[in-house]
């Protein structure tokens, strides 16, 4: 069963909004831009409708480049196989801030208010990240209640996990319940939505929380973490 979490509060971090806008810690926005950022963060709070969803699935088998879940849901990724061989369950999750913020961004663009649109869009990206952290924390609490720990979270499109595998995640999620749909190109609507998977395994398993990148020999990978 898909579990839903709604009606929770989140805090949009101005520093993170600045980071989405391309500012560095050493060189933040000037005074007038900072005022716009504060105003658009305020507007974002009025527009976001945070909600997140998750479902736990048992892992049946882990092969070299496949993770087979209950109901024969199949995750195709050597990277995830390396992580999930230390897990016995996964949580498939979806987090969204709803459609209203991106509709307002479109309006601002059409009105030629490009800076405000960009700042509001960045505020939405940061809000979506906070919603994703919220569902991750809930999954971590669930895992801890059973003496388990969680892996890092992963989304389709990361490393060797093809974006087309969004379809596997959406086999689990009910679009009517979540309000998030998937296009033929595997893009989500609303755009400010994040889907992904987290492994759950015994908390004393040292490798569980490690990044798969630590044992990867790919040179100069931009996604290394
Ligand atoms: S370094 Fe790059 S290729 Fe290697 S596991 Fe990390 S994301 Fe994947």
Give Rg in angstroms.
Answer: 19 Å
Catalogue the unreliable spans: none
Q: Tell me the major beta sheet.
A: 7 strands, antiparallel
Form type: globular
Task: Give the end-to-end Cα distance, rounded to a whole number of Å.
Answer: 32 Å
Secondary-structure map with pairings?
Blueprint: E1 3-6, H1 14-20, H2 31-47, E2 51-62, E3 66-69, E4 74-76, H3 78-84, E5 89-96, H4 100-110, H5 114-145, E6 148-154, H6 166-172, H7 175-178, E7 181-182, E8 188-189, E9 193-202
Antiparallel strand pairs: 1-2, 2-3, 2-5, 3-4, 5-9, 6-9, 7-8
Helix pairs in contact: 1-5, 2-5, 4-5
The structure holds iron/sulfur cluster.
Iron/sulfur cluster (SF4) binds next to loops.
Give a verbal description of the structure.
This protein has 225 residues and is an alpha+beta fold. The protein has 7 helices and 9 strands. The chain has helices at residues 14-20, 31-47, 78-84, 100-110, 114-145, 166-172, 175-178, and strands spanning 3-6, 51-62, 66-69, 74-76, 89-96, 148-154, 181-182, 188-189, 193-202. The strands form 2 sheets. Strands 1, 2, 3, 4, 5, 6 and 9 form a 7-stranded antiparallel beta sheet that branches. Strands 7-8 form a two-stranded antiparallel sheet. The model has no long low-confidence stretch (mean pLDDT 93). It binds iron/sulfur cluster.
């Amino acid at each position: 069963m898909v579990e839903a979490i709604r009606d929770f509060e989140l805090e949009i971090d101005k520093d993170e909004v600045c980071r989405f806008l391309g500012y560095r810690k050493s060189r933040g926005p000037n005074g007038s831009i900072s005022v716009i950022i504060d105003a658009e963060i305020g507007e974002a709070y009025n527009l976001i409708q945070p909600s997140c969803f998750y479902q736990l699935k048992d892992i049946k088998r882990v092969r070299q480049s496949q993770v087979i879940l209950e109901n024969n849901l199949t995750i195709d990724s050597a990277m995830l196989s390396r992580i999930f061989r230390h897990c016995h369950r996964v949580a498939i999750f979806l987090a969204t801030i709803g459609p209203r913020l991106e509709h307002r961004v479109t309006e601002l663009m059409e009105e030629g208010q490009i800076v405000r649109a960009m700042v509001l869009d960045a505020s939405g990206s940061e809000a979506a990240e906070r919603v994703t952290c919220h569902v991750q924390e809930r999954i971590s609490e669930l895992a801890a209640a059973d003496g388990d720990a969680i892996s890092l979270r992963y989304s389709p499109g990361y490393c060797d996990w093809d974006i087309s595998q969004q379809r596997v995640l959406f086999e689990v999620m009910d679009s009517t319940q979540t309000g998030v749909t998937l296009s033929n190109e595997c893009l989500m609507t609303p755009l400010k939505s994040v889907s992904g998977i987290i492994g759950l395994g015994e908390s004393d398993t040292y490798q569980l929380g490690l990044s798969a990148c630590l044992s990867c020999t790919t040179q100069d990978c931009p996604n290394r973490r």
